[in-house]
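Note to self: keep these together.
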Amino acid sequence: MPESSYQFPDGFLWGTATAAHQVEGGNSNNNWAAWENEAGRIHNGEKSGLACDWRGGRWREDLGNAARDGQNAHRFSIEWSRVQLSPDGWDDSALDFYRELVKGMKALGLQPVATLHHFTDPLWIYEMGGWENDKTPVYFEKFVRKVVKVFKDEVNLWVTLNEPNGLVVNSYVDGCFPPGKKDFRSAFKALTNLIRGHTLAYHTIHELQPNAMAGYALYYRGFFPKREWFPLDRWAARGLQGNVNDLFANAIHNGRVKLILFNTMVKEAIGTQDFVGLQYYSSDEVAFNLLKPGELFSSRQCPHGAPVSPTGFIADVPRGMAQGLSWARQFGLPIYVTENGVEDAEDQMRPAYLLRHLREVWKAANAGWQVKGYFHWSQVDNFEWERGWSQRFGLWALDPATQLRTRRKSADLYAEICKRNGFHPETVQRLAPEVFNELFGA
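Structure:
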């Protein structure tokens, strides 16, 4: 048995990530509640319903399991639609749930990492045009101010927006998220206002809590030329890199907002970032395709030979994680992997996927790249947006009908990683023998 191991730096944050609409249950006043009630929007017409019943108190079970398994942090989100019922209408009692949740996390030894916008908007925001409306960033800032005043003594890590680049693509290019548009002009308008919303939120957080760390969580996807030797494949991959991965980040770096032929400046956004939140799941091989102008003249497929998840949604491509971490390093800021995981109800692919990706995180953390934490998606199966209940990302399985949780083997693996602040040959041999030689040699 090899004596070497993959050990992470002291103080590394180990956690899981969740989002309010996906776990709380009973959300009825936001755009996703409306979307779920439109025919054909969600896989098999499924609805979030009780979700994981966190509003009913089941967070205690899930986060208790997380803490017992050695996690020391948890990333959650605060549902805007519960707190701000109208432009000037507030439900202060809605914050009581989050007070209890944050208090419970800290009692369990979990550092709370709060996300202020995780894909959902209040219904009244949605009805006035969502992020296409120039007033939305101002209303979002009011919500942020309300929340930060309450939690500034309890929360030090704030994520303003979850995957704003992914939100723009899904809502205004692919059309699978509300409002279901496929229009680059609308996408550019929403992108610009999301940047303004983030900027206002960042400055408000620092006004109220000067020592806080604030940033956003970016959806990063690996794009690799199908034929490295072919210039047009390289060009197509660079185009996707620029219009997906660099879309939001460039504006925070240099103030320029650019999407296809549209561009503007938001100078006040420059430097509104204290850390990089990196969310990586999968990668694509990219080939130039003249017949697909709407997809930036590209065809994409899973990289050849990569293991693929049951629904074909995610390919196990750890070099994409390495690429993403290298990309994040350019900003010279602390890096948190705020999401990473794979949908795998039978838990056959997840152990190897987890270890392969954590090896890349380990390399970066031990190379001095300021990688400070890793949050697995997710602690328990939850409602996966337009894909409904068809994808299972949890370390714990969930039966939505009975709310029964069932521990998966991956929970054992992640627990040992968290408790030992790394992974050792014995752990891998016992819980993921299929990658033992790959990680430790024959």
